[in-house]
Amino acid sequence: MSTLDAKTRGRTSPGRLRALDAYLCRFEPGLLTRTDGPWAHGVFVDVGFGEHPWTTLESAEAFRSLHPELSVVGVELDAARAQAAHVHAGPRTHFRQGGFELPLTADEPARLVRAMNVLRQGPVERVPEVHHTLGRFLLPSGLLVEGSADPEGAVLTAHLLRRPADSADLPPTREALLFHTTFRHGFAPWQFRDWLPRDLRRRVRPGEPMHAFFESWNQVWQHARDTGYTLPADAFRESVTRLATRVSGVVVDSWLLDSGYLVWRPDGGVPP
């Protein structure tokens, strides 16, 4: 256990991260299916799967619809949880005890590392170092996904961090911020605030870029509702469409909007 690691409650629910799986399958298929050179052995790593490995197994099923031979490694800091998950292991599905210093072998480079709901506690100052540590295990242009979701998976946000293609020494680039809602609890932009990645939650205050982002989103959402878009899904779609005219980097894509996703990909990366 490194000084970066901290135990979590480890409670999760089936389906909590299915929306994230769906996004990655649609927008990162090359990352999941690439098999040239070292990518032939590239694995998906799920960090901190908790008491039960439901999310790891669900992701394995989703990603193998694109890459049937994909190897999956579930990592859990708690040794008892890791041992209990072995009942679900198979030739291409592995469960190991470990933390942010991932327990991968030399011939298991990571194409995708997911670390959801594992940084919600602890000092915010450690987040960049965790990102850098996890990023070292990625193949060039590999992806680190780190963020939070509510227990049901109704509200989710995540950093999308890309390892630079030309340097293993640099930290992963803060490429985009992903938001998703199922509308189970209705919709308002401020619902995402408490589920932002750990390093952004304290940045939602006047004068900060995240506060300006949410203020703009809330304004266009209110205007959408005032002009007849009263259903949550309709208000969401219209608000994101209008937000894209105010905030650079907001991705307008029909599948994303219809499915409750917002992707913010600002020039220069997501501001700290």
Q: What is the overall pLDDT average?
A: 95
Shape: globular
Summed up, the domain count is 2
Mind summarizing the main beta sheet? 8 strands, mixed
What is the number of helices? 9
The CATH topology assignment of the largest domain is: Rossmann fold
Helix and strand sequence: HHEHEHEEHEEEHHHHE
Strand order across the biggest sheet? 3-2-1-4-5-6-7-8
CATH class of the largest domain: Alpha Beta
- Under CATH, the homologous superfamily of the largest domain reads Vaccinia Virus protein VP39
Model regions low in confidence, pLDDT < 50 over at least 5 residues: none
What's the total count of β strands?
Answer: 8
InterPro entries: SAM-dependent_MTases_sf
Organism: Myxococcus stipitatus (strain DSM 14675 / JCM 12634 / Mx s8)
Protein name: Methylase
Summarize the structure.
By secondary structure, the chain is an alpha/beta fold.
Describe this structure in words.
- With 272 residues, this protein is α/β, with parallel strands linked by helices.
- The protein folds into 2 domains: 18-180, 3-Layer(aba) Sandwich (Rossmann fold); 203-248.
- It has helices at 18-27, 29-33, 54-64, 79-84, 127-135, 198-201, 209-226, 232-243, 254-258, and strands spanning 43-47, 71-76, 93-97, 110-116, 138-149, 155-162, 173-181, 261-264.
- A hairpin with a 5-residue loop joins β5 and β6 (155-162).
- The chain is globular.
